[in-house]
Design brief:
Number of domains: 1
Radius of gyration: 18 Å
Number of strands: 12
Helix content: 10-25%
Oligomer: single chain
Largest sheet: 4 strands, antiparallel
């Protein structure tokens, strides 16, 4: 899951601001999970890697081989709503080693069952500029039949969805817990100077199951005050 962005019509995002955004909204730790935060060229990139069984936060697979893919859209909308002026206008979900695929929730475009050297890949896209409505729930967005390559190369496993092991959700921390933050993700963080500035958020999210469960991108763009 890759979160990418920068301030809009303003100065370049700093490495400190990039880290503060990551610490506020994508902190915590768990088995088979780690993050890498980078600032380059005035933009911020957060890559969150979910491996092994932790990937079931993003996909479920039953014994019959039917796979469902989801993105934590409820949480991403929480992030957007925490800013003064923000919206989500772009979402992309991709899965490899899937066939007979279809998209849910009315995407604006889709590329289904594209042949790969081994197996197939499918992508569903939602763009508000194209008239689509960005999904707001964690319901499955892409479904199909998993291919053998998923087991052979992606080390996929059969199992239901699980709760996302990380990040720690700052919106659900109680006041008592906030007094003893475990990883810097507290209610106070949401009100930090960089997080409270009015933002326009563009999210391009891809749930591509390669070595990690998925890849997502958030673009934070700062709207200059008039």
């Amino acid at each position: 899951m890759s979160l990418y962005g920068g301030w809009e019509r303003s100065k370049d995002i700093t490495a400190q601001e990039c880290q503060e955004l990551a610490d506020t909204f994508w902190s915590g730790s768990a088995d088979d999970y780690f993050t890498v935060v980078e600032e380059f060229g005035g933009f911020c990139n957060l890559s969150a890697y979910y491996m092994g069984e932790a990937r079931h936060a993003f996909y479920s697979l039953d014994d019959a081989g039917h796979v469902q893919v989801r993105v934590p859209m409820a949480y991403l909308h929480q992030i957007a709503s925490s800013f003064e002026d923000a919206s989500i206008n772009n979402l992309e979900v991709r899965f490899d080693s899937i066939n007979n695929a279809y998209c849910n929730a009315g995407p604006s475009s889709a590329s289904l069952d594209r042949p790969l050297p081994v197996g197939h890949a499918s992508t569903c896209r939602w763009r508000t500029d194209d008239g689509a409505t960005i999904p707001t729930t964690d319901d499955p967005l892409l479904e199909g039949d998993v291919e053998q390559a998923f087991f052979d190369f992606e080390k996929g496993t059969v199992g239901p969805f699980i709760d996302m092991p990380a990040p720690i959700n700052p919106f659900t921390i109680t006041p008592a817990q906030a007094d003893e933050p475990a990883s810097g993700a507290t209610d106070a963080d949401v009100e930090s100077p960089s997080a409270s500035r009015g933002l326009l958020i563009t999210i391009a999210t891809g749930a591509a199951l390669l070595l990690v469960a998925g890849a997502a991108a958030i673009t934070w763009k700062h709207r200059r005050a008039s």
